[in-house]
Design a protein that fits this description.
The complex is a heterodimer of chains A (about 120) and B (about 120). Chain A is built from no helices and eleven strands. Chain A is mostly beta strands and about 120 residues long. In chain A, strands 2, 4, 5, 9, 10 and 11 form a six-stranded mixed beta sheet that branches. Chain A has a five-stranded antiparallel beta sheet with strand order 1-3-8-7-6, with no helix packed on it. In chain A, a hairpin with a 4-residue loop joins strand 7 and strand 8. The mean pLDDT of chain B is about 90. Chain B is built from no helices and eleven strands. The chains are: A mainly beta (about 120), B mainly beta (about 120).
């Protein structure tokens, strides 16, 4: 089982719709979670970070974390064609151990917003 | 804003050459990372460093080495370049955990697309 799993997509939504991107992780003690957006040929760009269970909103983006079920999701409201990109989920695997500085990245979900 | 600068956007080298990829960050971050990204394989960690002169192997260190002589600079070295090292190379940096013990996000440079002929 991969440590961080995402559906590769593409997830296709019409302009103005809500896009829902999901990520599951295997390490129960993970503490920190991040969503990155990556346009084709570009480097990943941080969108959201979330550390506590529940929802965190930033503009059109909402991150949702459920540690009991080991999933984190990203909702994009009023999707725009400019949101078309690959979205990477990243999880800190463990605290206070050798890998505490590291992030484990999922393979990403490709989002396509149709005009 | 965090600025992570990679020395080259595109680089073409020949098999057997020694290749240096440079990365500089301007936010006094303690942690720096080198990844490669290949289609279908995602981001894979090559090496990381959590302090000057300190380095740790990532998931795929074979064929690579690193150097961190100054806090702001982290270099990736391909000792003898091979065609299977053709890839997009990404440098990232992050600060220490915050007082609530939350890990800080990593911030990426623009990447270096390296081709080994």
């Amino acid at each position: 089982q991969k440590e961080v799993e995402q559906n590769s997509g593409p997830l296709s939504v019409p302009e103005g719709a809500i896009a829902s991107l999901n990520c599951t992780y295997s390490d129960r003690v993970s503490q920190s979670f991040f969503w990155y957006r990556q346009y084709s040929g570009k480097s990943p760009e941080l969108i959201m970070s979330i550390y506590s269970n529940g929802d965190k909103e930033d503009g059109r983006f909402t991150a949702q974390l459920n540690k009991a079920s080991q999933y984190v999701s990203l909702l994009i409201r009023d999707s725009q064609p400019s949101d078309s990109a690959t979205y990477l989920c990243a999880v800190n695997p463990r605290l206070w151990m050798d890998s505490s500085y590291k992030l484990i990245f999922g393979s990403g979900t490709r989002l396509l917003v149709r005009p | 804003d965090v600025k992570v600068t990679q020395s080259s956007r595109y680089l073409v080298k020949r098999t057997g050459e020694k290749v240096f990829l440079e990365c500089v960050q301007d936010m006094d971050h303690e942690n720096m990372f080198w990844y490669r990204q290949d289609p279908g394989l995602g981001l894979r960690l090559i090496y990381f460093s959590y302090d000057v002169k300190m380095k740790e192997k990532g998931d795929i260190p074979e064929g690579y080495s690193v150097s961190r002589e100054k806090k702001e600079r982290f270099s990736l070295i391909l000792e003898s370049a091979s065609t299977n090292q053709t890839s997009m190379y990404l440098c990232a940096s992050s600060s220490e955990m915050d007082p609530l013990n939350s890990n800080q996000p990593q911030h990426f440079g623009d990447g270096t697309r390296l081709s080994i002929l």
